[in-house]
Amino acid sequence: MKRHLTTALLFTAAADPASAHSPVKGIGIFYNGMLHPYLVPGHLLVLLALGLMIGQHAPGSSRFALPTFLAAFVASAALASMLPLVVLPETILLVVSLLAGMMVAASIAPGVVLPILLAVTAGIVLGLNSSPEGVPSGQAGVALAGTVVGAFLGILYAGGLAAWLSRLPSWPPIAVRVVGSWTSASALLVLVLEYSKSGAAA
Known about the structure:
Layout (H helix, E strand, L loop, with lengths): L1 H13 L14 H11 L1 H16 L8 H18 L8 H16 L6 H16 L11 H27 L5 H30 L1
């Protein structure tokens, strides 16, 4: 089971994200924006890893990291709406996912500073890399608003679930650590894949 899930995560993270920017017909621009973080593999991976890390040791790690993530995301999304060509490498999100997933797997309390730094980094990259495609320019703000809401709900629910499970006896806290290890392993494998691609291209 663990091997199959890891393989599925790897294939998902390695998928081409370009098609995920295309709108889903019939659900409206705002809801397309909400779906966007879940259709781009690197975005989904970092939301899961950060949410688990923040929630595992909440409220100490979540008190400042969650609002900081939201503020960074909103500010960078607003910048993206004005300068849509500003894009940062998706590998930054994979590095954040790797670090956060490792912290979860080891069940190490991250303190206050590290969650804030990772949340700010993820929020900035996600915001700048979430410019909607195939959306009329006058409605791009609506799509970006949906993306902010969708991403924040994702990290909030992942963190809430991790916080709840981590306080239960027996196996639930171990399950959180296992998912964290799968997340970090997937991020590491994709980083190695990207590095090998760049090396082959050179």
